[in-house]
Structure formats: C-alpha cells, structure tokens
Amino acid sequence: MAKMTAVPRGVGRERYLESLWIERILRQETIGGAIILAAAALALIAANSPLADAYFGLRDAYVSFSIGEWGAKISVGHLTADGFLAIFFFLVGLELKREFVAGELRNPRQALVPVVAAIGGVIVPALVYLWFTQGVPEAGRGWAIPIATDIAFALAVLAVVGTSLPLALRTFLLTLAVVDDLIGITIIAVFYTDDINWVPMVGVVLGLAVFGFLAQRYSLFFKMRPGAAWVVLFPIGIVVWSFMYQTGVHATIAGVLLALTVPVKPSANDPGELAEEHGESLAEIFEHRFRPLSAGIAVPLFAFFAAGVSLGAADQFLDLLLDDVTLGIIFALIVGKTVGVTLGTALVVLLPGVKLPQGVAWVDLVGVALLAGIGFTVSLLIGELSFGPGTLLGDEAKIGILFGSLGAALLAALLLGARNRRYQAQLAAETRDANRDGIPDVFQKPETQS
C-alpha cells in the first residue's frame, strides 16, 4: 500500500483531499472500465462462435458450497451476479458513505443539485422505456433497466477524454453516479424481492452488528497493523452475505450494508504516530484492498457471463435490435438519461440560492448527462432480475444495454472531448509566459510583455 503524503490541516484541506480522492478514482476506473469492456467483448465473441455451447454450458453449470451444516447449489452465472458482484456493491457502499460523511452530499445545499439530477435521470428513462414497451407482455418488469449509471465506465470515459475538464464537473458526475447507485440498490431490494425468509435475516443483523462493532473500533483491535483488519472482517462479511443470500433479498445488498458500517475517517483513537504513518481510514484501506479485486476479477467475470447473447443470423439480429424492448432501452439510456439529468438540474437551479457547480457550463452538464446513460453493469444485473438469463426478453435487454451504453459513451466522448480541448487551450493561454519571467503573461500589462 502506497504511503499517503501528510496534508496539513487548514483552510481548503478537505477540498484538496476530495480532489486527490477523485483523481485516484478516475485513474483506477480507467483501467477497470477497459477490463470490463474487454470481458463483454469476449462474451459476445464466445456466444457467437463455435465455443457457444461451451460458454453457455459453463454459465449454467452448478457449483456447490457449504458453511457448517448449511449448503447451497448455485450456477456459475448466478454466482458471479449474486456473489462476486457483492464486492462491487461493497465499494459502491463505501463511496456512498464517504459522500454523505465527507463528500458533496454532506452539505444539503451542495447535494441538492446532483440528487435532483439523479432523480430526473431515473424517472425519465423509466417513462421512456415504458412508453416504448407498452403492450409487450412481461416487458414492464424491466422498467428499472435503464435507470442505472455504471460508475466504472462513466469515469473511465471521463478520465480518457476529460483530462482538463473542471474538477467540479468530475465531482458532479461521481456524486450523481453514487446517488444513482443508491436509488438502483433500493429498487433492487424493494421491487426485485418476491418473498423474504425472515429466519436467516436474524443472522444478517447479528453478522452486521459484529462486523460494524469491529470496524468502528478497528484501531483498538488492530493497533499494530490496521491494514490487517480486512483479514478478520472479510470472512465475517462472507458469512453475512451467505445469510443474505438465504433471505431472498438480492445478496449484493449485503455488500452495501457492510460498507455502511465502515468508518470513512481515520479513528480518533489512533495513536499519533500511527495516524501519521498511515493517514488512512479503514474505508480507504478496504478500497485499496478490494478495488483491484472488483475491477480486475469480480465485475469482469460478471460482465463475461452476463453480456453473452447469441445474435443469430443478420436478419435475426436486426429483428432483435429493432424490437420494442431493445429500442426502449437504447432510447431510455441515451435520450431519457440526458433529458432527465439535464431537466432535473434545470428545475432545481430555479430555486433561490441554488446554482450549477462553479466553473461548470450547461454544455458540460449535458455531456455528463450523456455519460450517465452508460448503464452497463447494474443494468445487466437488473435485466437478469427482470427477465432471467437465456430468455428472449433477456437477450433483447442485453442488446439494448450494450448498444445504448456504447452510444451514450461515444456521444459523451465527442462532446466532452471538444470541451476538453477548449479548456486545454484556455489553460495554455492562462499559463503562457512568453518572456520567461516566472509570471504568466495574463497577469501582466501588455506593455511589460516582450
């Protein structure tokens, strides 16, 4: 684990730490997004090649595991969706808590704009999808498919094309995506849970209590090596996940609940020299440990088994592409998200004292709204929950998600790329020092420049 440079306390310290955190997330998600995209491409190749039978056979193969006297049998595809993806949702939970405790969402006035924008980005895409699919039997169950924003892909695109965009714009996207995930997680828990088994829920509550107790007091239990806390807490998390899996609630929710018990600020009980040496909260330690596992293994495996769809012959593929469900998702992700986020923002800034983040123009915000239409990971998950794997509606949903997310990414890259070049030219003009006197020319009078 890289040692963090101590940041002196004082005015602007929290904003500086926030910018460092956002820059680190952007770097990490760029690599993760590329790996996930490669996994999805491999899935499509495998599903439409002579390896198709082996691919679908592996996805549908069952594995068994047990904890004590309890055992379960689960398919490989199901395991990646319910099990491995819980690691991704754990990191989402950490980002959620951090935003509420130390980020943009801790200030109600600052939080209002991205929160309302996220709500608009949920309502409008859902309505667009329902409008396209009206009259299609069973299609209404997929109304939540286009509401999600894939943090990894969205931040990866922004990191590639938006190197000079204002920090406030990147903060806005991250906050918007986090709120979007919170809404998506709530929808999964409420609308995609049929029956709840309350007996194992007792195990969930007890496991969360033990996990949270140790996490909140990690500096007392792990004084010599705070980074070792994850070695003890990770097995407890697996036990909580197994109980959650038995309840009937989607097991990935366990990852979010566990994350919400983790402190996002360094403990006040840390000895002074320990705080100076590490300077990290337990949430940051967990992020260092689990983000490579999530971005490099868990989410790519889910994408590999979830994105595979047999496209058939050209005419069959065209029929799938032009189906109401497919088109509904594509238009909901590209048009619905863009309109929803932009309209939500436009409405909320009409309130007294509420305005766009400093330095962000409306055209920049439209670019971010397009990025929010990249719904890959969570959209695929909701698609499986809505229609099940291997169904016609499920295949149509996958094609809609893939084409809709790709279209949103390309349009956002074009718009934000152009804006990025403008900001680069502006930065170059502001920092130009033609006479090499150490003072940018823009701060000097014309007659003093050579």
Q: How would you describe this structure in keywords?
A:
mainly alpha; disordered N terminus; globular; Na+/H+ antiporter like fold; 450 residues; 17 helices; two-stranded antiparallel ribbon
Topology (elements, then pairings):
Elements: H1 13-47, H2 52-60, E1 62-67, E2 70-75, H3 76-101, H4 108-133, H5 151-161, H6 167-191, H7 198-216, H8 218-221, H9 229-247, H10 253-259, H11 272-278, H12 282-306, H13 314-321, H14 324-348, H15 362-371, H16 376-387, H17 392-431
Antiparallel strand pairs: 1-2
Kindly describe this structure.
With 450 residues, the protein is mostly helical. It has a single domain, classed as Up-down Bundle (Na+/H+ antiporter like fold). The protein is built from 17 helices and 2 strands. It has helices at 13-47, 52-60, 76-101, 108-133, 151-161, 167-191, 198-216, 218-221, 229-247, 253-259, 272-278, 282-306, 314-321, 324-348, 362-371, 376-387, 392-431, and strands at residues 62-67, 70-75. Strands 1-2 form a two-stranded antiparallel ribbon. A hairpin with a 2-residue loop joins strand 1 (62-67) and strand 2. Helix 3 (76-101) packs parallel to helix 10, helix 5 (151-161) runs parallel beside helix 17 and helix 9 packs across helix 10. It is globular, with a radius of gyration of 23 Å.
